[in-house]
Amino acid sequence: MPAAHILIAGGGIAGLASALALARRRHRVDLFEQAVAFGQVGAGIQLGPNVTRRLQSLGVWEPLVRVAARPEALVVRSASGGREIARLPLGNAMLRSYGSPYLCLHRADLHTLLLAAVRGSGAATLNTGVRIADAVARDNAVCVSSTDSRAWEGDALVGADGLWSTLRSRVVEDSPPRPTGHTAWRALVAQSALPPGLRSTQISVWLGPRLHAVAYPVRRGEALNVVVLAEAAPAGDARDWDQATSLGALQMATGRTCAGLQALLEAMPSWGAWALSDRPPLTGPEQMACERVALAGDAAHPMLPYLAQGAGMAIEDGVALAEALGGGDSEAVPAALARYAAARWERNARVQARARRNGEIFHATGLVRMSRDAALRLLGARLLDQPWLYGA
Ligand SMILES: Cc1cc2nc3c(=O)[nH]c(=O)nc-3n(C[C@H](O)[C@H](O)[C@H](O)COP(=O)(O)OP(=O)(O)OC[C@H]3O[C@@H](n4cnc5c(N)ncnc54)[C@H](O)[C@@H]3O)c2cc1C
């Protein structure tokens, strides 16, 4: 049976993971990325065992472990007092429980290794500097056009064009992403530039009223990624992942924090800010695929980073898409995309909802905060582990 010809709009993690998964099944892929070149951007990304298992199945295990850090544990502390509240062993414990490790990466490293694998597959054409503007159905095909009036035809289109997706409206009519009023302040530092007491091999989480902070190693442990999430909006463009900001602006948003966290924040060489937006969880498979157009990654289900699974769900989408298409031919494509949507929408919606709920729990104040800490002290790893997520 002849393989299908799949067009993909967007060369982020969702677009590249989909391209790789499809190319491995011998489908012909044309990927379009609006940027004139694939850039090395972003900061840290955590990948749970559910994601590392899928990356292993995509044949990128060796490049992955070459650039990843494998944190020993996730340790939750109070942002005001610094005391340890709970701990989840990661390292070998995750491997034992789920058969695959918990890894932390720089987004640029993940992007680079996926890009190299797609290039190496020989089955994908990568077109940069092409912004897809529209898609129309035509007989047994889909025709896409770019903003500079070029056109391509394929058996299916995957809209992997991110949070501000243009192609989402081909599948679902809804409003633009909603600003959440939360901002992520992000910094990256070489561990060798930090005093020994601030270096870390763990994922550290500090919970405070209306804020939390996360620090974890990336790049084989050579760099430390630090993110502070607080309920304050920066003035700049919501589409800018890396607005210039300062330690002073960050401290205005966080107020006083414990000495350990304060010292870490002060040790960062520079800060970037990113205003967070999301969409409500998906409500059905018809919001992920329609006829010959399917959505993947943030275009379908942008989420707050409070479960650390945005990139993870994008990678899961890519693998599921290729599984649904199998080796199928052009005529079978709409049914295959419907199967893909049916397999993915509910899990994505659950992760979106849990990420939002985590934000409320992490940032709790008053009595809710006290109850949260008591529950974490009592149940620790049982509350922090996510078998429904990591085991699937
Ligand atoms: C620049 C950048 C930095 C990021 N940094 C981090 C980070 O540090 N930590 C983190 O956890 N997550 C980060 N993310 C988000 C994370 O990568 C995504 O949440 C997740 O991986 C989902 O990826 P995605 O491919 O669906 O969306 P995205 O990563 O947003 O990728 C979408 C891609 O589509 C392209 N595109 C958009 N519209 C069109 C169009 N019409 N035609 C063609 N191409 C188009 C975009 O240029 C982009 O390359 C970042 C995303 C971006 C774009």
Ligands, deduplicated: flavin-adenine dinucleotide
The biggest sheet, with number of strands, parallel, antiparallel or mixed sense and barrel status, is: 8 strands, mixed
The CATH architecture of the domain at 5-44 and 107-174 and 280-359: 3-Layer(bba) Sandwich
Gross morphology: globular
CATH topology of the domain at 5-44 and 107-174 and 280-359: FAD/NAD(P)-binding domain
* Helical content band: 25-40%
CATH class of the domain at 5-44 and 107-174 and 280-359: Alpha Beta
List how many beta strands DSSP finds. 19
SSE blueprint and pairings:
Blueprint: E1 5-9, H1 13-24, E2 28-33, E3 44-47, H2 49-57, H3 61-67, E4 73-78, E5 84-89, H4 91-98, E6 103-106, H5 107-121, E7 124-128, E8 132-138, E9 141-146, E10 151-154, E11 156-159, E12 178-190, E13 203-208, E14 211-218, E15 223-230, E16 243-245, H6 247-254, H7 259-266, E17 271-278, E18 289-290, E19 293-295, H8 310-325, H9 333-362, H10 366-379, H11 381-384, H12 387-390
Parallel strand pairs: 1-2, 1-11, 2-7, 4-13, 11-19
Antiparallel strand pairs: 3-6, 4-5, 8-9, 9-10, 12-15, 12-17, 13-14, 14-15, 16-17, 18-19
Helix pairs in contact: 1-5, 1-8, 2-8, 8-9
The protein binds flavin-adenine dinucleotide (FAD).
Residues 9-15, 32-35, 41-45, 107, 131-132, 160-163, 166, 241, 297-299, 305, 310-311, 314 line the site of flavin-adenine dinucleotide.
